[in-house]
Amino acid sequence: MGGETTEVIAHFDLDSFFVSVEIRENPSLEGRPVAVAYSNEDFTQGVILSASYEARKLGVQGGMPVTQAKRKCPELEIIPPRHGFYSRVSKAVFEEICLLGYEWKQTSIDEGYLRLTNAFSWDEIGEIESFGHDFQDRIFSELRLPITIGICSTRTLAKITSTISKPKGVGVVAPSKVIRTFKSYFPKIIPGIGVKASEFLKQRGIYTIQQALSDFPPSNKLVGFIQQVIYQRTSTWFGNTRKRKSIGKNRTIRAKKEEIGRVNAELHRLISLATQKLKTENLETRTITVIVRDENYTTRSKALSLSHSSQNYNLLEKVADELFSILCPVPMAIRLIGIRFSNLEKIDPHQSKITQFLH
Fold first, then answer.
1. How does pLDDT run across 282-312, given as a tens digit for each residue?
2. How does residue 112 score in pLDDT terms, banded at 50, 70 and 90?
3. Residue 96: which domain range?
């Protein structure tokens, strides 16, 4: 794979997650200063957990006492939290992310990372940007939740990219553009630089990352940390790179029940794309899964494991067609169709299978 570096990492963060869920459930809250907070009836106690961007513009921040938030924004509407409900919504988000077929890592209820290295390279930045927008559109289309995506060459830089792209943004920073993009920001934008480190820098007249890199001796631990981040020496992924667990392709299709032929055609197209990916990565699959989401947003799947691994399109298509007929025994409206290959095995180029001779 070409490109400037081997890693393409995406950080995704659901914007004002608790508040966005409440707005989704009650659209009349859209565009108003709203916060989710523990509080008593007269707002003399409690703390802000999440605030809408309209509230943030008026000075309301997460972690702020409700009394202070009300002083800054008297019209602020306080909504009590529903953590069980938020957890269920979060689960639905990550189920959607799982369908993308990339290696991913959840780091909190509302954010995580995708490792896109096996699918994209940095000499295809247009395709990376298109993926970011498609990902964002999909989460909003299927779950009605705003999300910001930042894509760069390390986890830390991807998170910084999403931070500066909020809200509802898609940011992509190529490795060669990292210093140019971030040099004018205050170093506190880097995860791990907190209040004490920020005060240390301000007391010494350091207000930008570029100043920290050029005005301080490299032996300084804080400067060394900033250099590690900006010069892309921090961790790219979580621990050792793991072998690919699955290859998946899916598409939001929104087909009426009389358009079942269009759904079948799209399934065959996705099988072709996924099979080509198997061949590109010199892999075979033993387990085929078909995923269907109906008009009521109910997602169902059916899987079948082969007696031997394969990358033969005709065989995989036949199995997928059988699985689809089980999932959809009668015509029905379909919102999403997908295919996933798992139990992957690397092909040994020096070992011939007996099936190669059975013609």
1. 899 999 999 998 888 888 899 998 888 999 9
2. very high
3. 9-16+84-177
114 lies in some domain: yes
Which candidate, 79, 99, 75, places its Cα nearest to that of 16?
Answer: 79
Mean pLDDT to the nearest integer, 23-32: 95
**Number of domains forming the structure of the chain:** 4
Most confident of 4-13, 130-139, 214-223: 130-139
**DSSP letter assigned to residue 236:** S
pLDDT at res. 355? 42
Give yes or no: residues 90 and 149 share one domain. Answer: yes
- When the pLDDT of each residue in the chain is averaged and rounded to a whole number, the result is 88
Query: Is 51 found in the same domain as 75?
Result: yes
- Reading the block at residue 267, the tokens are 């399934």
45-51: Cβ within 8 A, 24+ apart: 46/78, 49/18, 49/81, 50/16, 50/17, 50/18, 50/19, 51/16, 51/19
CATH code of 76's domain: 3.40.1170.60
Is residue 271 included in any domain, yes or no? yes
As beta bridge partners, residue 294 has: 334
- pTM score of the predicted model: 0.75
pLDDT at 162: 97
The residues that are catalytic are 111
Please list the alpha-helical segments (H only) found in 74-175: 83-98, 125-143, 155-165
Burial code (b: 16+ CB inside 10 Å, e: under 16) for 163-183 equals bebbeebbbbbbbeebeebbe
DSSP string, 170-197: EEE--GGGHHHHHTTS-GGGSTT--HHH
Q: What was the pLDDT predicted at 244?
A: 65
Contact 228, 219 (CB under 8 A): no
Residue 126's CATH number: 3.30.70.270
The answer as to whether 43 is a domain residue is yes
170: left (phi > 0), else alpha (psi -120 to 50), else beta? Answer: beta
